[in-house]
Amino acid sequence: MYLLVQEWRQSCERLLKVAFLAPIAGILGAVGAGVSAVGSIEGGIAQGQSANYQAQVARNNAIIAEQNSVHAEQAGEEQAQEQSLKSAAMGGRIKAGQAANGVDVNSGSAVDVQTSDREEGKLDTENVFNNAQLQAYGYRTQATNYEATAGLDQTAADEAPIEGVLGATGGLLSNASSLGFKWGKA
């Protein structure tokens, strides 16, 4: 008889545990699923904010690159003008040197030397200007790349909250189905 009472007592204790703990486990599972869902949504929002920040940094870099392009062009024009003046001064020194040595500066090889110097000076001036234009083009290309990066980052920022909601929804559905299986087994 003692064994029968003991078995009955153990059966009652098991039923009591199942009746009491099963709902608590279900509630805790639902709360955990909710916390996980909120975390997914908050993670999506944080990713969106981070991507917005990165997009703004890229837009700022694009503005700076455009400004650098303008500065490079202006500096190139000034350097080309300076080079042109140096070349003209050199031409004057050549002509003065020829005249000081008694050479007719308006005929023969003296004119050829002056012409060659003028052409070399023009070429130097054009090279300075061309290099500045290439540098400005590089900055404009860099600005375009920054704008493209900003566009991609902005798209990521726009999509991140949606990604968070979808992750939360998937997590909730997954937890709900697993809770249903647990309840079905209890």
Can you describe this structure?
By secondary structure, the chain is mostly helical. It has one domain. It contains two helices and no strands. It has helices spanning 2-100, 108-185. α1 runs antiparallel to α2. The longest helix has 99 residues, at 2-100. It is rod-shaped, with a radius of gyration of 41 Å. The mean pLDDT is 84.
Spans of at least 5 consecutive residues whose pLDDT stays below 50 are: none
The portion of residues assigned to helices is over 70%
Order of helices and strands: HH
Number of strands: 0
Intertermini distance: 30 Å
Strand content: under 5%
**Class derived from helix and strand content:** mainly alpha
Provide mean pLDDT, rounded.
84
Q: Tell me about the biggest sheet?
A: none
Outline type: rod-shaped
List the domain count as a whole number.
1
Topology:
Blueprint: H1 2-100, H2 108-185
Helix pairs in contact: 1-2
Keywords for this entry:
186 residues, 95% helix, 2 helices, single chain, rod-shaped, mainly alpha
Précis, in short:
The chain is mostly helical and about 190 residues long. It has helices at about 1-100, 110-185.
